[in-house]
Amino acid sequence: MKISVLTTLYNRPDHLRLLAAALAAQTRPPDELVVADDGSDAATVAALARFLPACGIPARVVRQEKDGYRLAAARNLAIRAATGDYLLFLDCDVAPLPDAVAIHEKNAAPGRLLCGHRALLDETATQALFAVVPAPRDADWELAWRSADLTEAETADKLFARYAALRRWHLARPHKPKLLGCHFSLFRADVERVNGFDENYVGWGYEDDDFARRLYQAGLAPRSVIAAARALHLWHPSLAPQALARRRDRPNRAYFRRWRVPAFCANGLRKADG
What we know:
Elements: E1 3-9, H1 13-24, E2 32-37, H2 42-51, E3 59-63, H3 71-81, E4 86-90, E5 94-96, H4 100-107, E6 112-115, E7 119-120, H5 123-132, H6 138-147, H7 151-168, E8 183-187, H8 188-193, H9 207-217, E9 221-224, E10 231-233, H10 241-247, H11 250-256
Parallel strand pairs: 1-2, 1-4, 2-3, 6-9, 7-10
Antiparallel strand pairs: 4-8, 5-10, 6-8
Helix pairs in contact: 5-6
């Protein structure tokens, strides 16, 4: 099985450099890293050109022009560029511990969606990892893990189990168990069954819930690897909760709440006009 790791990027080269180091340190390294750049600045482009060729795994960058926040389009861009038959999606600020890719491979199956999560690092722990790039040791990852806040991930795992049980009885909401877009994997063929991400989602919010809903509608079975496939969320300055609420774009919410959503989206990997 050929595994492609897909990530999106906008002006965070240090985070991507650490992600690449984490992937190179895997017990089962991925076969390639595909970076979809959502219009980063010239300094970021130059930084990628310096460190990606020597990161230890085959890596390529595909780019789209900056035109607002187009995460769904960027992910589809990465999917088109990937050559693997199995796709592991990781945000550029999420670093998997050394056995994470192997755990995804072990649990992979056609028709199965593997859902991961991440433990939160503070600024000090994140800077400590930046300091050991490009060659962090297993001990560095374990030290960071011991300092991470696991509360959100542990809660998510419990909720996942509850919603997975409800789904077996056809009682779950259409997009539950929740897919966290920063860490999940599935076969490429299953992505193509729903035509990838719906690019009508522009701005912040709902593209992951929509993708999960359509995958479940297409018959995919969710499985949690939250506890097994450990990953760390690298600290960075973030928007205040009020600002995030304002950015959860109302057009996306209205589009998500429409009735009778088909599993195969029209504005996805392949366009209706060809």
